[in-house]
Design a protein that fits this description.
Elements lengths: L1 H20 L12 H18 L9 H8 L9 H18 L11 H18 L9 H8 L7 H20 L12 H15 L5 H10 L9
Amino acid sequence: SPYNTEWHGRFKELVQYYEKYGDTIVPQNFNQNLPLARWVVHQRHQYKLLKENKKGSQMTQQRIETLETINFKWAPFDSDWMSRYKELAAYHKKHGHCLVDGESHNIILAFWVQTQRRQYVLFERNEETTHMTAERLGLLSNLHFEWTVPEAKWKSRFIELARYVRRHGIGQIPRNDPSYRDLTRWLREQQKLNQQERLSKEKREPLLLLGVLTIKAYN
């Protein structure tokens, strides 16, 4: 069939890539042959569908065996991913969150965390190019990973507020201190949302525990 002819044509291109570079991990931005790069991503996606017993997979045992003759990697980034995950788990154990600050901590880990959020969006859209899997989703969720940017920003502010309360007690934040201007604005916003009964339970409860929902935000 035309599809089989096209498949074997791409496979021959992948063999040439393998012979030249020594692996089958074709970068997605491989400008010399972008169709090949997309084809490789597609093969991994079809293999994933097959393993998950989902309908519509075009992967066959014969194709699997053909690809594996050139040492095709079905999940080429697994070991690297787990290495970074272990770093994040250690960070979470120390700090109690996954909001890695690239300026003061591990820049590579901070970038990796941002990548997981982007991959999560692709996963939710069922995009073939995503490296996110249900297993990875579960592992990150075990660390209470902040999946969205708004969620991450909210938690970052909450942590900043909790640190302030721990250092200075429950009191008013200095109005004229520029280092706390954004924090003061954020706290007033949370208090207003609470008064309007628009603050979610997940956000209201930790703020109640800090005892900051009723105090004046600044002096």
